Amino acid sequence: MGPFTRKSASETPETSENPALAALTGDWTIDPVHSGIGFTVRHAMVTNVRGSFHEYQGTLHLDGSDPSRSTAALDITVASVDTGMKDRDAHLRKEDFFDVERFPLMTFRSTRAESLGDDRFRLTGDLTIKDVTRPVTIDLEFNGSAVDAYGTERVGFEGQATIQRSDWGLSWNAALEAGGVMISDKVKLLFDISAVRATSQD
């Protein structure tokens, strides 16, 4: 994940030199106060349930000159799930779904990053939910960089990925009287990331 170089007709991400992007190379820490990690899933065949996780921490290493050297790591506290309904959230925390007592963290570790051009990027990595690790691909858009009112340098990304929850053992469901199932197997993951430049600890 990172401000990968834009690719022109005569350049590739590995050889392109963009000083503005190259200046962002370094280590960054995801700011959970100004970020959001959420999901949507079809409910009762006709509507979407939206949820989010409130507790997480993550780091990025951005390489503005070579996208393949950028990396990301994210740890999500699964018990912080919030869909706006307490009973539903309690069910999600139980053995039918996340089993947070045994598996408190959901993790992502990137394995590949690439530029798609026009500030669009693709990050592939290993997503671990419960005791299952499978690859997932996140399509991202780089929203830019800025120095905020407190003098903190920030970068921003937004993106999404679509997964089949049953691939991670999250297969609980209920049949509907009129046909179909209560919860879709397809889940869309949503990322709205603001990260601040990490300061060296001497």
Can you tell me about this structure?
The protein has 202 residues and is mainly beta. The protein is built from two helices and eleven strands. Strands 1-4-5-7-8-9-10-11 form an eight-stranded antiparallel beta barrel. A hairpin with a 2-residue loop joins strand 8 (120-129) and strand 9. The longest helix is centred in the middle third of the chain and has 8 residues, at 86-93. It is elongated. The two termini are 26 Å apart. The model is unreliable at 1-16 (pLDDT under 50).
Brief descriptors of the model:
50% strand, 202 residues, mainly beta, disordered N terminus, single chain, 11 strands
What layout of secondary structure does this protein have?
Elements: H1 19-22, E1 26-30, E2 36-43, E3 47-53, E4 56-62, E5 71-77, E6 81-82, H2 86-93, E7 105-117, E8 120-129, E9 132-147, E10 153-164, E11 183-197
Antiparallel strand pairs: 1-4, 1-11, 2-3, 2-11, 3-6, 4-5, 5-7, 7-8, 8-9, 9-10, 10-11
- Look at the structure and give the mean pLDDT: 86
Please state roughly what percent of the residues sit in beta strands, choosing from under 5%, 5-15%, 15-25%, 25-35%, 35-45% or over 45%.
over 45%
Q: Strands across the major sheet, in which order?
A: 1-4-5-7-8-9-10-11
The backbone outline, from C-alpha atoms, is elongated
Unreliable segments of 5+ consecutive residues? 1-16
Q: What is the overall number of helices?
A: 2
Gap between N and C termini: 26 Å
The whole-angstrom Rg is 19 Å
What class do helices, strands and sheet pairing give? mainly beta
* Number of separate strands: 11
Short description:
The protein is mostly beta strands and 202 residues long. The protein has two helices and eleven strands, in the order αββββββαβββββ.
